[in-house]
Fold:
Amino acid sequence: MVNIGKFFLSSALLMGTIIGAGIFGLPYVAAKSGIIPSFFYFLVLGGVSFLIHLFLGEIVLRTKEKQRLAGYAKRYLGGVGSSMVAFSIVLGTVLALVAYIIIGGRFLKIFLGFCLPFLNITDFRLSLVFALLLLPFLFRGIKNVAKTEFISNILFGLIIVFVFLFSLPNFDFNNFYLFNSSNIFLPYGVILFSLTGWSAIPEMVEILNSDEDKKKLKKAIIFSIIAAICIYLIFVLTVVGVSGSNTTEETFVGLLPYLDSRIIFLGVLAGIITIADSFLILSINLKNTLIYDYGISGFSSLFIAWALPIFLFLCGLRHFINVIGIAGTLIGAIEGIAIIMIFKKAKSFGNRKPEYSINISRFSEYVLITLFVLGVISLIF
Structure:
């Protein structure tokens, strides 16, 4: 019998990787570009995200060896493909971690404004404090972090419900801007970033470690992505419906004039926990990639995963929306296309019978690749 606890634990891990800093940028881009473009991007990129996560799941199940995306690229695509994926993984993950450091500092500032209003510490310094506080937790295994992630997902989901309920009296449909052509490309990278969690797929398989458990991987992926998208849509509609054009990059500052301060406090607290867990999962995944696929020692890989994002933050990479937009676009273009190519190769050269198999036409593959290329073009504009 399949272990139900493992199913929800693996689902929580994927949801925790997907629902991170990106959720707090979604209301801002929806307010700036309009609801119609935002929902269009959600529809298209949500479908793309479904397929890419399922593709990587099948790749992992078709391969006996314990690897991460860079290792699968090396195995199935050779040197050039492996180098491109390695570049994308390191750059994309590090940019995501920079985004967590940025938003973590801003949330800590709001949190301390409630608890210790006499303190006047800049969000720049609090971002460094945020990263420093998380360092000891990087020594914990992914399963321990996944348990915390499960709890934080429930907490954050409840906070979203509370924000929604308490926002209803201030909700105004006139706050929704339908279409803004000048920001038509703005949501692409941010939404794709918010839907990207495929780095957690190999870790999910580690949790679903028996052949019987692995049969639930496909359902766990589908469940996690549907749940994440539902949370996103409720969150975006609620925030934009209340704060409208005053919606801020970190969301909660724009809600302060409209909602009870206690709800904002709980939202910020849940946000800090969610961001911290996602930061840890991504850091551990990057550390494991450096260990398993490149033979870097455990301590050195951990130091790189933690210190490199801080270094880029100190060098001036501090604009939240720009960082997650670039990260989402680059991760999608390089890793998304690589996963499609690896998926095709694994169908023929995998050394294990998978617990599920996805079949799509060659035309569909070209459509997916085209969408990723268009994303890079949109980044230029």
